[in-house]
Specification:
alpha/beta, Spore Coat Polysaccharide Biosynthesis Protein SpsA, Chain A, three-stranded antiparallel sheet
Length: 286
């Protein structure tokens, strides 16, 4: 038996396509969900187990794993999956042929090295054996910009590395890109829309924005050692750079939201929507 843990937050429209694609591509399974800000009377009956759970995203995932562990056998499969993610190919034990855990790894998001909870496949027994944890803070990595970052999945990576346990990363396999981070296919097996229930602002965007602010500050003409004037110029350049960076981030969110809505409409109506990302663009004679 496969047990699925998912969190839907404020936005019920992902429920139907997620369940539809899981029905097509998963073996016999049960879905355990946290539905926050979503009508439990209307949508709850579609899940094996459902509750409006408190806490941050990683807290809910850990709590769902605990609920599943009470009902499942150790050799049962366990899948963590984001609300805006779903399998587009058959998911089975072959994913665990090389290691006891397989998960999306988003190298394209500020060199993120961690197992991502948008799709993580393992067994109930392994998760409990290592005391799996989706928390944040026990592992940090350095982005290409020099920023030090942690995120959900950091604690899990720390556990795996401490125990010297290998895991199988599912890497971005898009053959056609609409965006460098969102609308991703991983390992030719799972689609992750990205930021499906929040503003589309990623580590990739925020670290690049922070780098642009630092660069604006460092373009100061007056030497930093000049009393008052040196510090004043750097302060002014920093504040102006920060304002421009925030404006750019807002524009990115606006543009991405418009593109996201186009793809969402395709997801809701076309079971083969993902082929625009998985099929190589046809070449046309020049």
């Amino acid at each position: 038996m496969l047990h699925v843990a998912t969190v839907h937050w404020q936005e019920p429209r992902w429920i139907e396509p997620q369940l539809r694609f899981m029905a097509r591509n998963l073996p016999e399974h049960r879905v355990y969900a946290s539905l926050n800000g979503i009508d439990l009377d209307e949508y709850g009956p579609r899940f094996h187990w459902v509750e409006d759970m408190p806490g941050d995203h990683h807290v809910k995932l850990n709590a769902l794993a605990a609920v599943i562990s009470e009902q499942a056998a150790p050799d049962d499969q366990l899948l963590f999956i984001d609300s805006d993610a779903f399998p587009i190919a058959r998911v089975d034990d072959t994913l665990l042929a090389e290691a006891p855990l397989a998960a999306v790894r988003r190298d394209e998001n500020a060199a993120e090295p961690i197992p991502h909870p948008c799709f993580c496949f393992t067994t109930v027994g392994f998760w409990n054996e290592i005391r799996g944890d989706w928390g944040i803070g026990n592992y940090h990595w350095t982005a290409p910009t020099g920023d030090v970052i942690s995120d959900g999945g950091a604690n899990l990576l720390a556990i795996l590395e401490e125990r010297d346990i290998a895991w199988t990363p599912l890497l971005r396999s898009n053959r056609h890109e609409l965006h460098p981070l969102w609308f991703g296919v991983y390992g030719d097996a799972v689609y992750h829309h990205g930021a499906g229930s929040r503003a589309a602002r990623s580590f990739r965007d925020t670290t690049e924005a922070a780098e642009s602010v630092r660069a604006a500050r460092d373009r100061a003409v007056i030497p930093a050692g000049v009393p008052v004037l040196g510090r004043l110029e750097r302060s002014l350049r920093y504040r102006r750079g920060k304002e421009r960076a925030e404006q750019r981030l807002v524009q990115i969110e606006h543009d991405t939201r418009a593109l996201s809505e186009e793809i969402v409409q395709q997801i809701l109506t076309d079971d083969d929507f993902y082929r625009q990302f998985t099929d190589a663009p046809s070449s046309t004679p020049g």
